Amino acid sequence: MEKVVIKKSPYNVKKARIIDIKQLTEKEKLFRVILEDNSWLDYEPGQFIMVSLMGIGEIPISICSSPLNRDYFEICVRAVGKVTESMHRLNVGEIIGIRGPYGKGFPIRMIEAHDLLIIAGGLGVAPLRSLILYAIDNRRDFGEIHILFGCKTPEELLFSDEIEEWGRRLDLHFACTVDRADPDWKGNIGLITSLIPGVDIDPIRTYAAVVGPPIMYKFVIKELLAKGLPVDQILLSFERHMKCGMGKCGRCQIQNLYCCKDGPVFTFKEIMDMAEAL
Amino acid sequence: MKTEQYRIIEKSSFNDFINSLIASQKVIGPVYKGFNNYSFEGIKSAQEMSLNYIPTIIPPKKYFMPQKETILEFDTKETLHVEPVSEYEELILFGVHTCDIAGLRCLNVVLSDEPKDISYLIRKRYITIIGLECNAYCDEYASCSFVGAHVPTTGYDLMFTDLGDYFIVHIHSSKGMDIVKQANIFKPADNYDFEALKALRGKKDRIFNNEVPTERRYLPDLIDRSWNASVWKELEQKCLGCGNCTSVCPTCYCFDIKEDVDFTLKAGQRYRVWFSCQLDPFAKVAGGIDFRRERSARQRHRFYRKFRYHIDRYGMFFCTGCGRCSRTCMAKINLKEVLTALIKESETKIWRKWL
User: Fold this and answer.
1) Are residues B55 and B190 in the same domain?
2) Measuring CA to CA, which residue among B173, B71, B73 is closest to residue A10?
3) B86, A4: Cβ pair inside 8 Å?
4) Quick check: B53 and B38 in contact, CB under 8 A?
5) In a domain, B272, yes or no
6) B337 and B199 in a common domain
7) Inter-chain CB proximity A256 and B313 less than 8 Å
8) Domain-embedded: residue B262
9) How far is A13 from chain B (nearest CA, A)?
10) pLDDT score of B353 more than 80
11) Mapping DSSP to helix (H, G, I), strand (E, B) and coil, where does residue B129 land?
12) Which fold has domain A14-102?
């Protein structure tokens, strides 16, 4: 058996250095990362990268910073498995492996000049944060921006300081709810679906971007359709366990679509008749 | 038919030809393993091969996309050092049936789709394929005629066809021509040989009949109508979920990526290993949600992968009719029977609409 080094291999990883770590909640950390060769990761909101910890494994993680920020990019990691838990033990200055970005992100060119309704459940705020920050950076190109955010308890609220700022901004409509809370919680209590009927939007000129746990989609979509949103203006991002990111390994297949290549962002129209999608 | 592309070789000098190949390169051929099982293995002499063989346990895809394949080597001792690698071996595969050649065609299409799988493309370049045409069915499991894989078309360097006392050999590439020239035992073919080849193909047309009671072009529509078919529920009761059907399939290429570290825990390899949509963690995500939890959904996924999804993406069926999945299934799930049952169920539904 002969062996050759192939630098052009699609599985090759770029070295990236962690320059900042922020504990967001008990289970989530935000990693700020730069590429070691000082090149710039060219991505769109909603795309994901494959993150490697050599000897432990490789996992797909969505990028949660604004693509207009060329100094660094950020990923939000919840400690749920072997690789993510090991990541939480890393320190500033350590090196990780990156390949990507992969997939089809949010269709920015289509969303621009429309109103935007962002609905985030739990960790779903991570890929949406990239879109929100992009929209804030390009504020004049977007119409009204509504952000609805829901999570289980106030302690699990991600990016709480940024959320406070979004809430203060005059050019954003922001609402937040938690499933359950102590009596001293001053915000809304209830499922995220309870916020949708109250949002004042013109459904024909609004794009909705929805990311959250699988169970959330069915109920949110039902509310959005009741609001009169067209099926091709509801954007969803799906979670699957991509292994290659290149439409080969078959792990993320949803009928004839590959979540890694044709997604992870789909319009509701693309997948509405598809079993196994939700 | 270009006559210069054909040669003949007497069966009496066949063994000399194979042994001359073995003298210069590593040759792989079908070897009998007992209990009607065959396997592609490296051979030391022509006598080790069984030319009258039914499809081997594992198809020749194992040489193109090895079951376990290193894709990266890494070392984290000082700083992170990563080297993407590809492993290849110069091989001659002898005696590949047309169904398996069709299977390699499927792998070619998928793995040369962007982004290209460079390891696969390198490995493929170093393998010479010498085919062997089947003059009759291997056994009752085959359905190669249904998918049109029972006659040689493309995908080989040389194709051997048995014409009684001798083989007629089709030279399909310059690589094939080099082998023929170097062996120096092949004789030019004449009109008598072409007539014999034509007669054989005519006879094959009568022997190989469509094994599934519908035409190939109607199948995608039929599969479209079959999402909720009761056939899948019957498979739920039968299937043991062992994943044998996908391991032996010449067109299954799904994989997992894993890694090993050495004793220092600092260096190791990342490798790619065959995986199966029939097995448990395949469609699971963090948090434990499984998008195909039932065995019926997994079996349906397998049939849709073979006969529907890849029609949209690559314009071809991903079944070569080799029959391996049916032959190997411990629960006796038979591909031809499943398709026939789907056709019956769909017909009954259509008739009910009219009555």
Assistant:
1) yes
2) B71
3) yes
4) yes
5) no
6) no
7) yes
8) no
9) 7
10) no
11) strand
12) Elongation Factor Tu (Ef-tu); domain 3 (2.40.30)
Which domain range does residue B175 map to?
Answer: 3-65+87-207
pLDDT range class, residue B288, cuts 50, 70, 90: confident
Alpha-carbon gap: B188 to the closest alpha carbon of chain A (Å): 36
Q: Is the peptide bond before A197 cis (omega within 30 degrees of 0)?
A: no
Residue B237 and residue B201 share a domain: no
Chain B hits for A254, Cβ within 8 Å: 291
- The pTM of this model reads 0.91
Average pLDDT score over residue span B37-56: 94
Question: What is the domain partition of chain A in residue ranges?
Answer: 14-102, 108-237
Per-residue model confidence as pLDDT tens digits over A146-175? 999 998 888 888 998 888 888 888 889 998
Of B72, B119, B291, the CB nearest to A276: B291
Nearest Cα to B312, choosing from A48, A236, A264, A274?
A: A274
Q: CA nearest A95 in B: which residue?
A: B80
Residue A14: other Cβ atoms inside 10 A: 17
pLDDT tens for residues B199-252?
Answer: 999 999 999 988 888 888 889 999 998 998 999 999 999 999 999 999 999 999
Of A13, A55, A243, which is closest to B256 when you measure between CB atoms? Answer: A243
| B166: β partners | B10
The percent of residues above 70 in pLDDT, for chain B, comes to: 99
pLDDT tier for residue A1 given thresholds of 50, 70 and 90: confident
A211: tokens are 């990311």
Question: Both B110 and B183 in a single domain?
Answer: yes
Binary contact (A254, B80; C-beta < 8 A): no
Report ipTM for this prediction: 0.89
User: Is the pLDDT assigned to residue B44 strictly greater than 80?
Assistant: yes
d(CA B304, CA B308): 5
The pLDDT of A76-105, averaged and rounded, is 93
Architecture in CATH for domain A108-237: 3-Layer(aba) Sandwich (3.40)
Q: State whether A250 and B116 contact (CB < 8 Å).
A: no
Distance CA B103, CA B107 (A): 7
Judge: B86–A6 Cβ closer than 8 Å, yes or no.
yes
Q: What is the Cα–Cα distance from B317 to B307, expressed in whole angstroms? A: 5
Q: What is chain B's alpha carbon radius of gyration, rounded to the nearest angstrom? A: 22
Rounded to whole angstroms, the Cα distance separating B271 from B223 reads 35
Question: Can you name the residues that pair with A74 across neighbouring β-strands?
Answer: A32
Closest residue to A80, CB basis, from B86, B256, B287 = B287
Q: Is the confidence at residue B182, as pLDDT, over 70?
A: yes
Establish, for the pair of chains A and B, how many residue pairs have beta carbons separated by less than 8 Å: 132
Q: Which helix (H) or strand (E) holds A168?
A: helix A160-168
Q: Does any CB of chain B come closer than 8 Å to the CB of residue A82? A: no
Kindly state whether residue B261 falls inside one of the protein's structural domains: no
Closest CB to B71 among A9, A213, A276: A9
Q: Is B271 contained in some domain?
A: no
Q: Tell me whether strands A253-254 and B127-132 are parallel, antiparallel or unpaired.
A: unpaired
| CB-based contact B14:B168 (threshold 8 Å) | no
Contact A55 B291 (CB under 8 A): no
Interatomic CA distance for residues B223 and B338, integer angstroms = 11
The answer to whether residues B134 and B221 belong to one domain is no
Q: Which of A61, A71, A3 has its CA nearest to residue A29? A: A61
Q: How many helices (H) and strands (E) does chain A have?
A: 6, 16
Chain B environment of A211 (Cβ under 8 Å): none
